Amino acid sequence: MASLKSPSSVGTDGIGGAPQVTVQRNWLQPGTFNQQEWGNWKSHTLLLRQSVERLNWEENREWCLCAWRAKSGRSGDAQMTCAEFEDLIADYPQCMSGSKSVHPGEPGGAARAFAFIDRNKDGQISEVDFLAGCIAMSPHTAQRDLSEPYSQLRLQLLFQNYDANLDGRLDKDELAALITDLYAVKGSHDTQKASACAATLHSHHGGDLTYSDFYRMVEQRNINGTPMLFRFAKDFAQAVCEKMGGVATAPPHPHPQSHPQPAETKTQPNEGVHHPSSPRCVAGTMPSDGGCGGGGMGRESVRLRGSPQQQEQQQQRGASHPYGEVDGNYDAIHDETNLPLRVVRTLMAASADGATSLDASAPFILCTSDEVKMLCDMVVPHLIHENTLVELSLPVRVYGDIHGNLPDLLTFFNTYAWPDRRRGDILTTNYLFLGDYVDRGAFSLEVVLLLFALKIQYPESVYLLRGNHEDRILNKSYGFGSECVRKLGASGDGLWELINDVFEFLPLAALVDGQIFAIHGGIGDSIGSVDDLRDLRKPINIPIPSNLHPASLEQRRILDALWSDPTDSEEHFGTIASQRGNNTCRFGPDRVMDFCERNQLKMVIRAHECVKYGYEWFARNRLLTVFSASNYCNAFANDAAAVVLRRDASTGRISTLFQVLWGGAVDTSNGWLGNQARPPTPMRGRPGPPQTEEDHHHAHAYGQGARMIK
After folding, report:
1. Which SUPFAM superfamilies match (predicted)?
2. Helix residue ranges per DSSP H, 385-466
3. Residue 21 confidence (pLDDT)
C-alpha cells in the first residue's frame, strides 16, 4: 500500500518527481491535530525538500536514486521491502561497517535502519522515505540546531521510530526502548536500569510523552545522545558516487548559523557529457562539529575538572545516565553561550561538600564584571516576552524568600533536586521562585546570577517572580547595593543599576495549572481577579505614592502584589492597616476565600513573611505562605521550606509535598550579613505547628511532609 506518513496533501513530492499518496496516520486524523501535543511537527515532504535545498543535496539525491533504481529496476511510486533494502545496503558495506552509532553498524543494523525509515511501519518504503533516510542517517547531517529542517527531519523520524504502536505518544515501554538505545550509545547494555529509568521518567512526567514533550526535552538537551542514533558510518551518496566512478569533493564547513554556500566540484574528464547514471557527487555541506562526523558523533570533547577522585565520579556519572553528560561545555568555558552553565556548575561544585563553608568575605571569582553584564543581557530577552502573569503547569517546585542566603539555596538543591538536566528533575518539573532574592543575606549577587543562569538555560521551566526587594530604592539600603560595590569594585554601582533594570521585567504573579495563584505578597484590597495582574506594561517601576500623588488602581495592585500580607488571625476579616506602611494593607481569610471562589482557584501561595516552620497555612488551607531561608538574619530560629505541587495520579487531586531545612540543625549563619540596615520584620506570630501531625517532623536535619488539597 502506497502511503505518506505525515499530514501533508495529495500530490507530487517535488523530490525527484515521485508521486505521493496521502493516507493519514491514526494519530493524525483530519481535525484531530492538537497544537499542544504536536507543536513544531511539520510535513515530512516539506522538511525533505527544505533539507535538500539547505544542504545543497541535489547531486547527492541523484546518486541515491541511481542506487535505488539500479537495485529495484523501478522508479516513481515503487515500494521497497526490508529484504530488498538489506540487499541494497549490502552493496555498500562501507556505510555499515565500523559505525559507532546505534544501530546501522550492528548485526541486523540494516533491518533497524529500514524500520527507522519506514514511518508507518507497513513493511515498505518509497523513494521519498529512502531519500529522507539517506539524509537523516548521513554522518554529515547535524542535529544541533532544531530550527534547521534536516534536524527536524531526524527528530520526527526518531519519534516515529520509537512510537511502536503509532498512537502519537511514547509510552513507558517505548521510552524504555529509547533509553536502552541511549544507554547503548554510551557503552552500557543494562536493560533493567534503562527500564527503571523509563518508568521514573514516565511517572515524573505524569504519563506518555507527546511529540511536543519529546521535542522540548531534546531541544533543552534533557534527553541527550539522540544525534548518535541511526547513523551510517559513511555517507550513502558518497559511497554510491565512489563505487560508480565519481569523485567527491570534501564538504566545506560553514558556521552553523550561516547559510551553507554551494559546494565546489572538481571537473571530471567526462564533465561535458553528463551521463544520467553518473551525476556529480557533492558530499553533505554541514560542519563536522555540528553533525555526527569528524569522529565526535556530535559530542563535544570532554575536559574534567577537580581532583582525580572527582574526575572519576564525573566519568561514572556521564557513562551511566542517558540524560546526563560529562559536560563538554567546559572546553569553551569562557564562551558566552556557556557562561550560564559555568555559573551553575561552579556553584554546584563549590557546594558538593556542603554549602556551610562558603565565605562571603573571600574575593568574588564567580564572574567578571563583563560576564555579569553578559548574563543580564542574556536573561532579559526571556523576561521581556513573559506576561506579568505567567502560566505554567504541574508539577512545580516553589521557593519563597531567599534573601541572599546562598548556603540555604544550595543546601536545598543538593538535598532535594537541582534544576539541572544532569543532577536534577528539570526534565519533568517546573521551578517557581516567588521573589526577594536579594538583601540581608551575604550572597545576594551570587543568588541573582545563579537564578539568571538557570532562567537562561531553562526559560520554559524556570520562572522568577518579582518581590518587594527587587526594587532599587529598597535594595540600595538593605545590603545588595553595597555588596555589588564590595564584590565588583569600580563597576559595582553600574552593574547594580543594570541588575535592577532586569528586575523591572520580572513577572508579578503566576497561575499554576489554572488553579493555583502564586504571588510574592498577596491580594491586598485591590486585586479581585487573577487578570488584574495580566498584560501590565513592562518595565514596571514600583510606585511611591504620596498625598500629592496618590496611587492609581494599577499602581495599588502592584503594591499589594509585592507588599500585602494576610492578617495574623483567622478572626480578622476584611482588610486592616499594615505595619509596613500606608501603601498596602493586611487581608483577612474572607478575602482569600472570596478571591479563590471568584477565580475558581484551589489556593493562593505566597512568600514575603518569615514563618516558624518554613510554611504556614491560612484561610482554611486556601492560602499558603512559604519562606525558604532558615534562621532569618540570625535573629529567628525558623525553618526554611520549599513546596512541590503535583497531581496525584490515582485521585486526580493536587498534593503539596513540603521539603524542609530545619533551622539550627545545620549552621548556615554564614549566609547572613553581620550588620543589618534595620532589624528584620518580625516572624508571623501565629502559634502552633502546621495544621497536621504528618506535615512536619523534627527527627532529622532535612525532612518532607505531604498533604492533599481538597
Report:
1. EF-hand, Metallo-dependent phosphatases
2. 406-415, 444-457
3. 29
pLDDT digits (tens, 9 = 90+) for 516-525: 999 999 999 9
Rounded distance between C-alpha atoms, residue 539 and residue 504, angstroms: 5
Round the average pLDDT of the chain to a whole number and report it: 77
| Per annotation, catalytic residue among 222, 329, 468, 638 | 468
Whole-number pLDDT of residue 185: 72
Which helix (H) or strand (E) segment holds residue 581: the answer is strand 581-587
The H or E element that residue 585 is part of is strand 581-587
Residue 420 bears catalytic tag = no
Tell me which residue of 324, 328, 347 sits closest to 425, measured CA to CA: 324
Residue at 120: amino acid letter: N
Which residue in 422, 520, 646, 696 is the catalytic one?
Answer: 520
Question: What is the reported pLDDT for 339?
Answer: 93
Residue 401 designated active-site: yes
DSSP string, 36-51: HHHTT---HHHHHHHH
Neighbours of 15 (CB within 10 A): 20
| pLDDT tens per residue across span 648-686 | 878 889 999 999 998 866 677 888 888 887 888 888 865
Active site residue 520: yes
Whether residue 563 is predicted with pLDDT greater than 80 in this model: the reply is yes
Residues of the chain with CATH 3.60.21.10: 369-521+604-708
pLDDT-derived band at 263, boundaries 50, 70, 90: very low
Distance CA 517, CA 509 (A): 7
Question: Catalytic residue at 580?
Answer: yes
Q: Say how far apart CA 561 and CA 543 lie, in whole Å.
A: 12
403 is catalytic: yes
Closest by alpha carbon to 282, among 60, 50, 15, 51? 60
Which amino acid is it at 209?
A: L
Marked catalytic residue, from 342, 469, 606, 622:
469
DSSP run (H or E) holding 200: helix 191-205
pLDDT in tens, 48-79: 988 998 898 888 888 888 888 887 765 555 78
Query: pLDDT (tens digit, 9 = 90+) per residue, 175-191?
Result: 899 988 888 877 777 88
Sign of CA dihedral 68, 73, 75, 78: negative
Using one digit for the tens of pLDDT, what is the confidence trace for 607-650? 999 999 999 999 999 999 999 999 998 888 899 999 999 998 78
Question: Catalytic site residue 439?
Answer: yes
Annotation says 549 is catalytic? no
Give the contacts of 569 (CB within 8 A, at least 6 positions apart): 686
Map residue 12 onto helix, strand or coil.
strand
User: Using the 8-state DSSP alphabet, how is residue 259 labeled?
Assistant: P
Nearest-angstrom CA–CA distance, 326 and 181: 18
- The topology under which CATH files domain 369-521+604-708 is Purple Acid Phosphatase; chain A, domain 2 (3.60.21)
Q: From CA 21, how far away is CA 11, in angstroms rounded?
A: 7
Which is the catalytic residue, given 129, 401, 420, 639?
Answer: 401
Cell triple for 170: 511514547
Round to whole Å and give the CA distance between 419 and 428.
Answer: 10
Q: What angle do CA 87, 92, 95 make, to 5 degrees?
A: 115
What is the Cα–Cα distance from 544 to 542, expressed in whole angstroms? 7
Tell me the CA end-to-end span of the chain in Å, nearest whole number.
53
Contact 705, 658 (CB under 8 A): yes
